[in-house]
Specification:
CATH architecture of the largest domain in chain A: 2-Layer Sandwich
Shape of chain A: elongated
Helix content of chain A: 25-40%
Number of domains of chain A: 3
Largest interface: A-B, 58 and 58 residues
CATH class of the largest domain in chain A: Alpha Beta
Oligomer: homodimer
Strand content of chain A: 25-35%
Radius of gyration of chain A: 23 Å
Distance between the termini of chain A: 51 Å
C-alpha cells in the first residue's frame, strides 16, 4: 500500500479522491499496489463529507509522516504550493501537481530538487487538463527536433470563440453565458486576456527547449477584441479564429506568443470546439502529431493527476528524467517574427484603397456582403515591427488578427 | 555509450539509422548517453551505403555480443522476428519493435519473458506508426476505465477513402493511384481487407483489457465494397465514411471489430484525411482523448522506434510494467453487437418500400438526387444477427455500412 496526501480539496482535489475511489481496481492494478489517500489538507471543514476523517488543516503532520510517499498539490497559485512542494521533496516525497502557476514559475527548480532527492516531480495536468501531453513529450516525442508547438490551451476562450462563430453572437454576451454555465470565472481576465494560455505555452516551450522559458517574456494577446464581423470575414477566407499558444524553433531560437489566429478550415486545430483543448507538435521526423481532449473539468484533470501518482508508484526509487534546466532561454525578438495579418480599417472608397496599397503594397482584399463602410485585407508576410509601423501610418484601424 | 543492433535494413530500419544520425544530439540528450548503432542485420548487401561497415548477415554475433544492450527488430512478420526477439531477451537485451504481426501474436509472451529477464519489450511503432499511443495508454490513461477505443489505424485505406470522397472517384482507380504513389502495396489485401487494422485493434484491445485479444477472433470487413454512391448518401446524412477499428467495453465484456462506418461530420475522427491515422480513447473520467499523426512512413515510424530505444536507455535495469497477460480475453458475441445500418437495395417503387417497412420497421429514408432505381435507408439500432436475418429476407441488397 502506498499512502498519499492531497493538498487542497477544491474541484481538482475532490476529483482526485473520486478517481481513486471510483476506479480503485484500475488505479491499483496500474500502480502495482493499493493507493490510499491518508490525508487531505484544506483550511475548510467538510463535516458532511467522508473525507472529514482524513482532513488536516496543517501541512506539518503530512511532511513529518514517513508513511506518506506522494504529495498531490492541487491548491493552485505559487504560494504556499511552492513551499509545501519544496518541503515535501526535501523530505523524500514525490510531488504531483496540476498547478500551472507553480510549474511555470518554479518547474526547473523543483525538478532539480526532485532529482537530487531521487524522487519525482510530475505535472501532467498543468497543461491541457486531462490530455496526455507532458509525459508524451518527455517519453515519446524524444527522437525529434521539435519545430513548433501550437496549442488551443484554454477551454474557456475556445468555448467563447466556438459559440461566437456558431451563433453569430458577440463576445460580451457569450462571455456572460459562459460565466452562467460555470465555464468562465467571475473575473475572466486570466482566460480571456490569454494569461492562462501563456503559462501553459511557457511550460511546453521549456520542455521543448530544455531551458527555462519565462512566461513574462511571452507576447500575449487575448480575445476581447474579436467581433462577429471578424468571424464573417474568416468564413470568407475559409478560416476560423482560435486563440493559440505558439512556440516556434527557428534555427535554434525559440519564438513564443499567445494570440488569436485565423487558421484554415482544414488545419488540424480548426475542428477543436467548445471547452476542448488540443496541442499540435511538429517534429522534424514525426511531422504533425496532435493530442486532443478535455482541457479542464474535475474528473479529466484529476485523472491526469492520478496518472502521475501511478507513475510515482512505478518509480518509487527512480527519478524519471525530465530535461528542463535553470538556464534561461532567451526568446527570439518578437518584433522580428513574421506573420500575415488580416486588417480592417474604416472607409471603403478609392482613397482608402490607395492608402492601403501605398503603405502595405500587395494585399489580398476580402469582401463581406453585409458589412459596409470598411475595408478588409490580408497582408503579405511581414515582421511584427513592420506591421506596427505600417498600421500607425494608416490610422483608422478597426481590428487585426494574425493569419496562418 | 549504449550499443544497439538493428534487425532489418528496409524502410523502417534505414529510418532508425537516419533518425539516430540526423538527430544525434537530441537522441543522446534524452537517452542520457550516446546511442551507437553497432550492427545492422540484413541478408542483403549495401555496398554503396556507409552502413556496410556495420552489416552482418547472421544474428549470432549480435546475440553473443554483451556490448549490445538493445535490439531493434524492424523486419516484420512473425518469424524469424519472434525467435530473434526471444533470444535477445533471454540474453538480457532490451527489444524494441515496430512489428505488429509479432506483437499481436506474441506480445503477451515476450512481455512476460522481458519481465523475467528484467529488460523491456517496447512496441510503440506497432500501432499508429509515429503516433504516441502505446506508451500514453500504459503511462497516462492509467486512472481510467476505458469505455471504448476507436481508431483510423491504416493510412492506405484512409488515403483511398479520402480521395474517393474528395474526387468522387471509384475504389479501383483510387487504389491504382495509391499503388503508383507507393501508398498502397502491389498486393493491397492486408490493407484494403482490414487485416492490418485488425492486428492493431487487437494490440490496443489487449492493452486496454490487460488480457490476450486474438486478432483471429475479431470480425473484420474491408473497404473494397465502398462505392462513389455510398459517399453521396453519406453526404446527405452529413457523414463521412472511415475504416474504423473499434474496441468497446460493455459491462466488462470487450466487443472488437474492424469495418467501414459512416461517422458524423463533427466526429473527432471525421477530419482525419489522407495517410494520417488517429486513435480516439474514451475513458470514464477523461471522456474523449485523441491521438493523431502519421500512421506510417519511414521517418515517423522510425522516430517512434527510437523513442523506445531512448526509454530502454532510461530504464536499463528496470522493467517498465506493461499489463498484458497470457489469459485469453473472451470477446463478446459479435452477433449481439448493436448498430444502425445504412442499406441500399434495388428498386424504388412502392412495393420495395412496403417490403422495407415490413421487414425493418421504422427506418430513415435517404434520397440522393442523381441516384435512381434504388432505395436507401438507415435502420434503427439492431443486432448484427438480426441485421443478417432481415437482409437475407429482403434480398436485392446493393450495399450496407454501419452508422455511428
Amino acid at each position: 500500500m502506498i499512502n498519499i496526501a492531497v493538498l487542497g480539496y477544491g474541484t481538482v482535489g475532490s476529483g482526485v479522491v473520486k478517481v481513486i475511489n471510483d476506479n480503485h481496481d484500475i488505479v491499483n492494478r496500474h500502480a502495482g499496489q493499493e493507493v490510499n489517500v491518508k490525508y487531505v489538507l484544506d483550511l475548510r471543514d467538510f463535516p458532511d463529507d467522508p473525507i472529514r476523517e482524513k482532513l488536516v488543516h496543517d501541512f506539518r503532520p503530512i511532511v513529518e509522516d514517513e508513511d506518506v510517499k506522494v504529495v498531490v498539490e492541487v491548491m493552485g497559485g505559487v504560494e504556499p504550493a511552492y513551499t509545501f512542494a519544496k518541503q515535501a521533496i526535501n523530505a523524500g516525497k514525490h510531488v504531483c501537481t496540476s498547478n500551472k502557476e507553480l510549474v511555470a514559475a518554479k518547474g526547473a527548480e523543483l525538478l532539480r530538487l526532485a532529482r537530487a532527492n531521487k524522487v519525482n516531480f510530475f505535472f501532467e495536468a498543468s497543461v491541457g487538463g486531462g490530455i496526455p501531453i507532458i509525459r508524451p513529450l518527455m517519453s515519446s516525442v524524444t527522437a525529434d527536433d521539435i519545430n513548433e508547438i501550437t496549442g488551443i490551451l484554454n477551454g474557456t476562450t475556445n468555448y467563447i470563440l466556438s459559440k461566437m462563430e456558431n451563433e453569430g453572437a458577440d463576445f460580451e454576451s457569450v462571455l456572460k453565458d459562459a460565466q452562467e454555465k460555470g465555464y468562465a470565472e467571475r473575473n475572466p481576465e486570466a482566460d480571456v486576456e490569454g494569461y492562462d494560455a501563456c503559462r501553459k505555452i511557457a511550460i511546453l516551450s521549456s520542455l521543448a527547449s530544455g531551458k527555462q522559458v519565462d512566461y513574462e517574456d511571452i507576447y500575449t494577446e487575448g480575445i476581447t477584441k474579436i467581433t462577429e464581423s471578424d468571424f464573417k470575414y474568416a468564413k470568407e477566407l475559409k478560416r476560423t479564429i482560435k486563440l493559440l499558444g505558439v512556440s516556434k524553433n527557428v534555427d535554434g531560437t525559440i519564438y513564443a506568443m499567445v494570440a488569436p489566429f485565423m487558421i484554415k478550415e482544414d488545419h488540424p486545430l480548426a475542428w477543436v470546439n467548445g471547452v476542448f483543448n488540443a496541442i499540435l507538435v511538429n517534429g522534424n521526423m514525426l511531422d504533425d502529431v496532435l493530442f486532443y481532449g478535455q482541457g479542464a473539468g474535475k474528473e479529466a484533470t484529476a485523472s491526469a493527476v492520478v496518472s502521475d501518482v501511478i507513475e510515482c508508484c512505478k518509480n518509487l526509487k527512480h527519478n524519471v528524467p525530465i530535461i528542463w534546466d535553470y538556464d534561461k532561454c532567451q526568446l527570439g525578438d518578437f518584433g522580428t517574427a513574421k506573420h500575415k495579418f488580416f486588417v480592417r480599417i474604416k472607409g471603403d472608397d478609392l482613397d482608402v484603397m490607395d492608402k492601403i496599397d501605398s503603405i502595405f503594397g500587395k494585399v489580398f482584399y476580402v469582401k463581406c456582403a453585409d458589412i459596409k463602410g470598411e475595408s478588409a485585407f490580408v497582408t503579405e508576410e511581414i515582421t511584427e515591427k513592420d506591421f506596427v509601423e505600417k498600421i500607425n501610418k494608416i490610422g483608422d484601424m478597426l481590428s487585426y488578427i494574425r493569419v496562418k
